[in-house]
Amino acid sequence: MLQALRNARELALGEARAQAAELAETGLTGTLVEMEILATHLRRRAITVVVEAAS
Q: How many secondary structure helices (H) and strands (E) does the chain include?
């Protein structure tokens, strides 16, 4: 997951670790386009992803 986050968002390792923790706990938020791009990177690494509208 870290490599997918780093590639999708061009993050440093520490930033990717923080976002991975957030993703695992509460999920990430962003525009639909941002989330779909991230989801594509994660799916390429066989990580199951669900993108849904925030409530």
A: 3, 0
38-49: burial string, b at 16+ Cβ within 10 Å, e else = bbebbeeeeeee
Residue 14's contacts (CB-CB under 8 Å, 6 or more residues apart) are none
Q: Residue 34: pLDDT band by 50, 70, 90 thresholds?
A: very high
Contacts of 48 (CB under 8 A, 6+ apart): none
CA-to-CA dists, residue 46 to 23, 35, 39, angstroms:
16, 16, 10
What's the first-to-final CA gap in the chain, in angstroms? Answer: 25
> Confidence class of residue 53 from pLDDT cuts 50, 70 and 90?
confident
